[in-house]
Design goal:
It is built from 22 helices and no strands. By secondary structure, the protein is mainly α. α2 packs antiparallel against α12 and α3 packs across α12. It starts with a helix and ends with a helix.
């Protein structure tokens, strides 16, 4: 994705900015949250210390990420998806059977309160009256409906359309129909969490109100090691206490598989961003092997930063992991969404506009994020002292405001500066997407693989020892002779890689499925709204 911005706008500063910010977001949202989630489950299942659980999770995950790369990640993800869905359906069946069905769950949930409440206000431990509604009050709702519809849309543009972790998978597809089909299958699967995760989590509160719905700080500390809240252990608690022995092991495998699946994807994409967009600026003549080693060493550093951030994750946003992740994304991602959206659909946007939009957006977003962490997000029992003018705006509304500010700055600066010639924009923006003219890059790539040049020089090298060969093989660094292509073959390969034509049959199949999916999503929003 940073490479696209370089081709679209030229220059290095936007590409480097996006890479650094993406790595920052990975460390403080995706990696730290995933590690924390996995550690909670292992802690609940095995009774281990949370940091011992973290090390165990990372050791297993790193093993096949380091050795296999993107191919291993994709194959294991596919297998683990099947395991996750089967295990989650089994747990959902056990959970609904325990409470007597959906209607009984709705009744029992509204009365699920902890027995130890002290002198704490009832609004802090009673379920919300709108708990079974997706569209909640725009002022008093914990997820106000305008923020849900528009604010989350801004976040999802970043996450699903411009983030390296997701897009890297699409770029590995054979053709455009495969890309569309994969995205639609993913969207179908995304309909399931409401039934496989949300409802079982609510049932967990019904079955274990003193633990999952605890409100007294001392009680919460006793049950889950956090004085803020224990809602994060709702699903693991259900698995450990409700499932029989054999199925409990299956669900342990399911949960760890899902988290490792997510972590491996992030590690692989973070390594790619660091090596291609940052390390090559420091070492422009680095060989491919050096880049692979640098990427894997950087992953270790990123993991260390993420582990150090876990205590913040535990206490932020009233101890609710989902709210923590969404709030951080709302403070940092909207400028990125604005830049990509305008880069594709507005040909007039240029490099100065995009850069200053990103910088001003970052300053505004960081001002909210730093202030919030300095004062603490607080909770219902102990509210934060953060000034209302800064922290009083819901994070989803703030993300929407930040997106609007970024768009205004990007368009405004672009209009008063020089536009980019069309010869540099063929197939890089919507209006020129079908252009067949040759594109002239604003800047040439600043890194090329110099190993190919060295292969031409027949130098005798010492035969590597057995131990060295084993280490190189384990890390995916074994030497393989690449086939040297002629100029004509390279041009043909480039044409094939950039071909976006589709077979009419499969194009119609994926397009029809997209319409069906949209109708199903609208139905669910209407039914549960």
């Amino acid at each position: 994705m940073p490479e696209y911005l370089k081709k679209r706008f030229g220059g290095q500063r936007i590409r480097i900015y996006l890479s650094v910010l993406s790595l920052f977001l990975y460390a403080f949202t995706k990696i730290s949250a995933d590690i924390f989630s996995g550690a909670i489950f292992i802690q609940q299942a095995l009774g281990l210390n949370i940091y011992v659980a973290v090390i165990a999770l990372l050791a297993i995950t790193a093993l096949y990420t380091v050795t296999g790369g993107l191919a291993a990640v994709i194959y294991t993800d596919t297998l683990q998806t099947v395991i996750m869905i089967i295990g989650s359906f089994i747990l959902m069946g056990f959970a609904f059977n325990e409470v007597g069905g959906y209607e009984n769950m709705k009744e029992q949930y509204m009365t699920a309160v902890p027995s130890v409440t002290g002198n704490i206000s009832a609004e802090c431990f009673q379920p919300r009256p709108d708990a079974f509604n997706l569209f909640r009050d725009p002022i008093t709702g914990d997820l106000p409906w305008p923020g849900l519809v528009f604010g989350l849309t801004v976040q999802t543009i970043w996450y699903w359309c411009t983030d390296q972790v997701i897009v890297q998978r699409c770029l590995s597809a054979k053709n455009l129909s495969h890309v569309k089909g994969g995205c639609i299958l993913c969207a179908y699967l995304k309909l399931l969490p409401m039934f496989l995760m949300v409802f079982p989590g609510m049932i967990s509160r019904i079955l274990y109100p003193d633990v999952v719905a605890c409100v007294d700080p001392a009680e919460c500390q006793k049950y889950c090691g956090s004085s803020v809240a224990c809602t994060n252990i709702a699903y693991p608690k259900l698995v450990v206490d409700l499932m029989p022995n054999g199925l409990r092991g299956l669900m342990l495998a399911v949960m760890l598989a899902s988290l490792m699946s997510s972590l491996t994807s992030i590690f692989n994409s973070a390594s790619t961003l660091f090596t291609m967009d940052i390390y090559t600026k420091i070492r422009p003549y680095a060989k491919e092997r050096e880049l692979m080693i640098a990427g894997r060493v950087f992953i270790v550093f990123l993991i260390g930063v993420s582990i150090a951030w876990i205590p913040v994750v535990q206490s932020a946003q009233s101890g609710q992991l989902f709210d923590y992740i969404q709030s951080i994304i709302s403070y940092l991602a909207p400028p990125i969404s604005a830049v990509f959206l305008l880069a594709i659909f507005c040909k007039r946007v240029n490099e100065p506009g995009a850069f200053y939009g990103l910088i001003i957006g970052l300053v505004v977003g960081l001002s909210r994020m730093i202030t919030e962490f300095a004062y603490g997000t607080g909770n219902c029992v102990s509210p934060s002292n953060c000034p209302a003018i800064i922290c009083g705006v819901h994070y989803l509304y703030f993300g929407l405001i930040l997106f609007t500010i970024s768009c205004i700055v990007i368009v405004g600066v672009s209009l008063v500066t020089k536009p980019i010639d069309d010869k540099h924009l063929h197939r890089l923006c919507w209006s020129l997407r079908n252009s067949t003219e040759e594109r002239v890059d604003i800047e040439k790539d600043d890194w090329v693989n110099h190993e190919e040049e060295e292969m031409d020089t027949e130098e005798s090298e010492e035969e590597s020892g057995l131990c060295k060969k084993a280490v190189m093989c384990f890390c995916g660094l074994e030497k393989t002779k690449a086939v040297k292509l002629t100029t004509e073959e390279e041009e043909e390969l480039k044409k094939k890689l950039t071909d976006t034509t589709e077979e009419p049959l499969w194009r119609n199949v994926v397009n029809i499925n997209a319409i069906i999916l949209l109708c199903v999503a609208v139905f669910f929003h209407g039914y549960f709204g």
